Amino acid sequence: MSRASIHLVRHGEVFNPDGILYGRLPEFHLSDLGREMADRVANYFAERRNDGAKLVYLVASPLTRAQETAAPIARALGVETITDERILEAENRFEGLPGVKRQLRNPRYWPLLRNPMKPSWGEPYAQQVDRVMAAVHEARIHALELGGSGAEAVLVSHQLPIWVTRLAAEGRRLWHDPRSRECTLTSVTTLDFNDMELTGVRYAEPSADLLPGAANLPGA
Question: Is pLDDT larger for residue 86 or for residue 220?
């Protein structure tokens, strides 16, 4: 059997003083704290490599915040960053709105809330899982080609696509309360494989001590 591990990394904190649900909007850069978080997760992987981990492949969403989070990881590991739209943020019809909780009191948006299990305001959860898992398996194949059995890849993505992929991997329902997501800024959700078989899910928070006070919009 060929063992491989795929690490799904959420980006760092974004500079967003107006509290906008930025979704797929361009040019939302990391804040100073976000850059510190990105350095922290890069060090996390560098330490793993120094301990013998075969970290050989790096992929990032095309969005600015993901690319900026991937940059120090690429430098730390000495690999290039491959861009893959399949690990992009989820579509969201509230994208661009400030203070989304306040906006939900406006009747004009109520039709978007008719089916939270899908969800009706954005890209279906199952569709997100399908595209992310396709990217995961492609990264698994490339990592094995580069590093052989035991190879590892890093994919820098976004909270919701990572979270629903984890829910699917653990056999849980995809519908959930956004406040319950265990996917903090620059957290690492790891999927372990033997060949194509998923054998385990792990979770780590390299930036845990930096999280208090960080801006952390659900769905951002």
Answer: 86
SS3 118: coil
Model confidence pLDDT, tens digit, residues 55-106: 999 999 999 999 999 999 999 999 999 999 999 999 988 888 887 777 677 7
CA distance 103 to 126: 26
Residue 113 has pLDDT above 80, yes or no: no
Q: How far apart (Å, rounded) are the C-alpha atoms in residues 23 and 129?
A: 17
| 61, HSE (Cβ side, Cα atoms, 13 Å) | 26
Q: What is the CATH number of the domain that holds 143?
A: 3.40.50.1240
- The reply to whether 218 falls in a domain is no
Whether the CB-CB separation of 10 and 49 falls below 8 Å is answered with: no
Domain count, the chain: 1
Q: Residues near 64 by Cβ (< 8 Å), separated by ≥ 6? A: 26, 27, 28, 29
Flag whether pLDDT at 151 surpasses 60: yes
- C-beta separation of 12 from 6 below 8 A: no
**Buried residues in 157-179 as b, exposed as e (16+ CB within 10 A):** bbbbbbbbbbbbbeeeebebeee
